[in-house]
Amino acid sequence: MRKGTAAYRRAALAMFLAGFATFSLLYWPQSLLPLMARTWAVTPAASSTLIALSTIAMAVMLIPASLLSDRFGRKRVMSSAMLLAALFTLAMACAPTFQMVLLLRFCVGLMLAGLPAVAMTYLSEEVEPAALTSAMGLYISGTAFGGMSGRLLSVWAAEYWGGDGAALVVGLCGLLAAL
Fold this sequence. Notes:
mainly alpha, 7 helices
């Protein structure tokens, strides 16, 4: 893809949204850890496992996700990963126990690995070398913007609708980005 073409603009927007959704879905609970500890009657240390489990799962799944992308295709792995991570986040709003929330967060991390493991490879294969730096920069800026926005969006949503509402809002944003 050449910079300036419609295909490049669509791919760059998709990669920005993928980076945004990945880190928004990964880090949104961080600003709500005290609320989560109160809601589930767990210690602050236990509530922090909401972040740790998803991050560990993501790290464990990075290499397998890259292998899956070789077999099933990069776009398919990335779009499936985003869709499933958003759906697992939405399911957190209905989780009856803290253990179920932890399991869903672990699943989110497993799914999210499909993006960072594949994104740069996808771009290097699809974008012409002259446009590669800007395309990668858009993906990386999406990750930074997503990490910050996920934390802010969840706090805003929790202010009105609690932790379950935050999961719904962030999950819906992830779902929109996946679509």
